Amino acid sequence: MGRLSRLVEPAVLYLVATGQANHGYDLVTEANELCLTDSTIDTAAIYRVLRDLEEQGCVVSSWDTGGSGPARRVYQVTAAGRERLARWVDHIERWSSNMQQFVQRYRALGSKSPS
Fold first, then answer.
1. Where in the chain are the domains?
2. For 88, which of 10, 22, 34, 112 could close a Cys bridge (C-beta 3.0–4.6 Å)?
């Protein structure tokens, strides 16, 4: 329960759009801290989503060769990515409302006596 792998995409878009993370390792760490799912998001899922988002024009990437250590691919969100994130937020809001209604209906069952 709680494995909502589809929520990797909005998490990645949000993190890149806000600048909280812009390369793979940071995205993995930060996406797991957002707690959109009870399951740990693995590295492969993050990179798979990044690749898909780049193919769809939602993010662009470039190589960062500055600093110490190996070069890193860094990501930036595009206008299309911001629009997609906004659609995700709308969807999550509706989903959240529907889930709250479901929980309320379930809780109401507990107050009714069995027939």
1. 5-110
2. 10
